[in-house]
Amino acid sequence: METACQRASIGRTTHYDWLKKDKKYAKQVADIDEVAIDFGETQLIKLMKGYDLPDSKVFLVDHIELKSGKTLTTKKPLVVPITKHFGPDASSVIFFLKTRGKKRGYVEKTQVETENKVQALNAQVTIVPAVGGIPVATSEKEVDGV
Description:
Blueprint: H1 2-7, H2 12-21, H3 23-49, E1 51-67, E2 70-86, H4 90-100, E3 110-114, E4 117-121, E5 128-129, E6 135-136
Antiparallel strand pairs: 1-2, 3-4, 5-6
Helix pairs in contact: 2-3, 3-4
């Protein structure tokens, strides 16, 4: 928020006062927050799916020319356009499922230790194939001590 206030040439206190007192201003700030979240979701989906980026590779090739009856060989760069592929990112898939898939059983395993006895909660594991065949998932069931 500090950077936005500086760019708008207002103090943070002014910003927070306007948030409390001006409904239209508060709505515009909320809209900006939604745009930022939309951007983050788009990037997360891109990471989950995998993506391509244009790039180039440079090769040095022999360049031969005749000059004054002599053969001159020099190295010249040859730029070849390529595409780099980045496959699906498993940690992004896991993050998405942990945050958006709780209703379907994608939850963290929780362990509670009491009097030197470990009790597992939500610990029955169900393996489900995910993007790229990477297994992720836990189902939400209570299990007695481990």
